[in-house]
Amino acid sequence: MVQDTQPHQTDTPWRRRLTHALRPRRLVPTLTAGLVAGCLGIIVQIAYAGLIFSGPLAGDVSRGIGLTLFGACVMRLVVAWRSSLPAAMAGPQDVPAAILALVATDIVRQMPAAATSAERFVTVVAAIAATSLCTGAFFVVLGLLKCGNLVRFVPYPVLGGFLAGTGWLLVQGALRFLAGTTLSTLDLASLLRGDVVITWLPGLLFAGLLLVVMRRYAHVLLLPAMVLAASGLFYLLGLLTTGSMAAIRAHGWVLGPLPQAGLWPPVTASALAHVHWAVLGGQIGHMGAIVVLSGMAALLNTSGLEVTTRRPLEVNRELHAVGLGNLLAGLGGAPVGYHVLSDTALVYKMGADSRGVGVCAAALCGAALFCGPALLSYVPKPVLGGLLCFLGFTFLVEWVYEAWWKLTRRDYGLVLVILTVIATHGFLAGVAVGVGVAVVLFVADYSRIGIVRQTHSGVTYQSMVERPLQQRRVLRAHGEQLYILTLQGYLFFGTATQVLHRVRQRTQAADLPALRFVLLDFHRVSGLDVTAVHSFTTLKEVAETQAITLVFTHLSPPLRQQLAAGGYGLEEEQGFRTFPDLDHGVEWCEEHLLGATQGLPIEPQRTLHELLRDVFPAAGPVARFMTYLAKQDVKAGAQVIRQGAPPQGLYFLAAGQLTAQLEGEAGARVRLRTMGAGTVVGELGLYLGCPASASVVADQPSTLYHLSRDAFTQLEQTDPEVATALHKFVVRLVGARLANHNKTLQALLE
């Protein structure tokens, strides 16, 4: 029984997927979209083959068609298997095809005069295959290194301009396809000739009808139904007006004429002996350009698919998929390819979302490859051209018409600039201009962002050191001599000059005392370039002339290296100091401000008995309270309270110094407060009964008096007068600390 049920359990997921895929609501859009995408792919691949194998290589165009169809078949299958977008389409593309045409022309020109046509063909195929293999390996490496997400930093208007330009190229290519002209001879005059208008006008009208209907109604069967209806109407009108299929073919209303010879006799290993490797080696520059440009175009197409389908894609997975597709297709001599934005967008607009779409499209390409042109001769050109126009119109409507209300005027202008450049100078020129303009705009915008996140003085911001009242008064009186700037972002010359400008403004403020310290906190600085170092060097010169000490805090190792590489010395000297964090840097400045006021009467740290006199005005309660305390002497570095430990009671510091600190992962510590003699710790744990929220460590040998929880309970029971006085003291203590924290927080929020 176990053996009978186990296969059934194993097969259940596959059966469910198969049953789901075979449902009419899902199967019909899948087959229809696969058929349409396959037909469009065949048309485009024929065009690419004609582009590459032209002139002296025109006799090999049928074999060239076989190479491009083979590439389309393999890449569609691999991407259907590996892509994170189920119905993604892939195949040989226009950018590498255009450069490969140059490569083929150069190879033919450089071949010896005695070279045969077979040698020319196999050398060109070897160049195509080598380029595809190198590009495939490049894509795979990019995916493995997780570099695909770099394209997400491309500005949104650049992507919009790219998609608008794609729409323009689709419309332009569809008109050329319908008019039957070459890619380089299309112009308005030729299109408006009476005998040419009739070739493209039906397709354009069909595209307009599709656009109106599809924007008004939404149904998965609507587009395929309109395609089938248009095809039926085409043959009905064609047969009524011409009388026969032969006449329809003669007028060029269907695909053709196509080569009748075999489309793909593969290049065998023995044929490699006829490759002219020296000629092929001279094309390394062009081949490298194809690899780099294809990488950029593939990433742009992937981002375009995200915008068009409104689905997040795993970019690195897509790179790996198209890389594997190029490696396999390159073994058969196919040109470089990647995701086809137009086909994928059309498939999703038809309501198909299945990996079966890619399989169906690949099967159609394979049928055309191995069965010859017979299957292609009945496809109506106006219907296919109309579909291409429709897709181009949707891009243009979205990014030229609707974007007017969605984008800012500047971003919309950038979309139009990219579209114009693509229309007049080509796709790559448009993308290059778009990225260049976006970079300039980004730098201009970023330079307006203040890198100075906050400014403080020693009056509004103090270190986490508890000081006697009179020392706090001194720091408030002389705190304006300390100028604190917390920096943020990436620093370069255009932004780092803001720091220099702020400091100069402060030194020229006549209503404030002269500066003694300028503290720069780099905690939120992500990096800096060599031009920013120049501004800090100038700041150091200004500080020296004004007798100001510069203090740098939170300098990470990379920032130190960048400053050192730019020639900025970090050696501590009389006018320069560095500290690991802002708190210790402010403490150092405070100590020197206090040291400069030695002539003033400074209140010393209070002893325990002086502190207890604040708690209990009378001597009697002090003596009674001391009987509940246990004296403890601790060494430097000893942990008085451990973070997370159960509450142990209250500690009165009689002599020495303690520091409360938060302990994080990997030994990271953040100082919360440093306390001298006459201070109290542990009050929250005692009253709330919660585990210690921080650790307390002795900075030097210290003497403590401990009020344990048991002693505290006994005190409340046996001496209510003393307990009440203690409660009032703790309330005042916590209130004072809260007031100080609120003051610091208010300064940080300003």
Structural descriptors:
Transcription Regulator spoIIAA, disordered N terminus, 5-stranded mixed beta sheet, 4-stranded antiparallel beta sheet, single chain, 3 domains, 750 residues, alpha+beta, Jelly Rolls, 28 helices
Number of extended strands: 15
| Estimated helix fraction | 55-70%
**Order of strands across the biggest sheet?**
3-4-5-6-7
- The structural domain count equals 3
User: Multimeric state of these chains?
Assistant: single chain
What does the largest sheet look like? Answer: 5 strands, mixed
Give the radius of gyration: 39 Å
Structural class assignment: alpha+beta
The first-to-last residue Cα distance is 75 Å
Mean pLDDT: 80
- Helix run count: 28
Which descriptor suits the 3D outline?
Answer: elongated
Tell me what portion of residues adopts beta-strand conformation: 5-15%
Q: List the uncertain runs.
A: 1-12, 600-605
